[in-house]
Amino acid sequence: MKFFGRKAARVSARPALARLPFGWIGGAIGEVPRNYETLVRDGYERNAIAQRAVRIVAEGAGSAPVLARPLAHEALRLIAGAAGQSLIETAAMHLLLHGNAYVGTTCDADGRPAELFPLRPERVSVEPAENGWPRAYLYKVGERVMRYPAVTEDGRPGLLHLKALSPLDDHYGLGCLGAAAQAVAVHNAAGQWHKALLDNAARPSGALVYDPGEAGAALSAEQFERLRAELEASFQGAGNAGRPMLLEGGLKWQALSLTPADMDFVETKAAAAREIALTFGVPPMLLGLPGDSTYANYQEANRALWRLTILPLAGKILGGLQAHLNGWWADLSLSIDRDAIPALAADRERVWAQVAGADFLSGEEKRRMLGLDHGQ
Q1: What is the pLDDT of residues 143-191, one digit of tens each?
Q2: pLDDT at 225
Q3: Which pLDDT score is estimated for 138?
Q4: Would you say 347 and 303 are in contact if contact means Cβ atoms under 8 Å apart?
Q5: For residue 128, what are the β-bridge partners?
Q6: For the chain, which residues score pLDDT lower than 50?
């Protein structure tokens, strides 16, 4: 039947994507760096909380037991990585920090995958086709550029691109490091302030008091501007905390005492650290942060970490690897073996007890509900 005098339109092509240049982060917001390399150095290499949070999640994803059916031995060998570098752990770290993870494939003489290797995400850019969809990926190291097709000539997948969804970018994902940059800056600045205060003998702050000598006398405009410039250049900022002043010309220093609470920056750093941990999906209790009572105990916090952060991330990576390897092995299935994760042992015991207590189920039905094969 025809509606409005014509047949219903058929979709024959993908919708066009915006052909925007690669710009995961750019510009600046206040004093927080937005360049990826700068963010990694300040927010990961020099920040203990962010580094530990990322390592907990990435190493947890890399250590999660994987079930591969069939071709278990060959698939697990590929996923294990090469040269001592865990593929899943590396991909998880790239997704957390950058929002994108790229995996390349080398094949043997028979055309089967021989090795899977990760690529540095900040070196990869998308080469879009006429409609904006990725045609290839360019990997640039110095002056050398390598081109990886999105789909090879024989119809098999080329470079695997995993990404954390970005609502404003068609080609690239959005990492957590940018969202944590403000808290990282506060945490780092608090540490620098504390160290500078200790380096300068923890002298208290005070006030500049002008002694006019005669009633009604005041600083001239030139004296005022010079004094303000010297204060901004030599006594302002974390690096000058507690630095003593050299006064002249009728000025005297009125010391103001500091209480122990004023000299304690632990609470400020702890608040920023909790925000950093929240950004990467790690319960603050697991990082030893004081004042966090969200979880009743350490075991509950550890289970929440696995349920809400590690398992979804590892599942995302394995799903992408499975779709990639299905180009060679169509029946390959990759999944996380939840029964082999120690942190989820209590959940497993509860489920097994519930299934075992269901008298209306047969033994075969119970095994099927627990995900056990008939031969086990």
Answers
A1: 999 999 988 888 888 899 999 988 888 889 999 988 898 899 888 888 8
A2: 82
A3: 93
A4: yes
A5: 134
A6: 1-11, 20-32, 374-376
Q: What type of residue sits at position 98?
A: H
Six-digit token pair at 177? 């490091």
At residue 356, the pLDDT reads: 81
- Quote the CA–CA distance of 85 and 105 in Å, as a whole number: 15
Does residue 250 contact residue 213 with C-beta atoms inside 8 Å? yes
Q: Is 144 helix (H, G, I), strand (E, B) or coil?
A: strand
Could you give the CA distance from residue 49 to residue 44 in angstroms, rounded to a whole number?
8
Burial zone of 155 (CB within 10 Å; 0-12 exposed, 13-18 middle, 19+ buried): exposed
Q: What six digits make up the tokens of 185?
A: 């800056």
The helix-helix angle for 345-356 and 298-305 (nearest 10°) equals 90
Q: Is 125 helix (H, G, I), strand (E, B) or coil?
A: strand
Give the amino acid at 251.
L
Q: From CA 354, how far away is CA 114, in angstroms rounded?
A: 44
**Prior bond of 70 cis (ω within 30°):** yes
Question: What secondary structure does DSSP assign to 71-114, as a single string?
Answer: SHHHHHHHHT-BTTB-HHHHHHHHHHHTSEEEEEEEE-TTSSEE
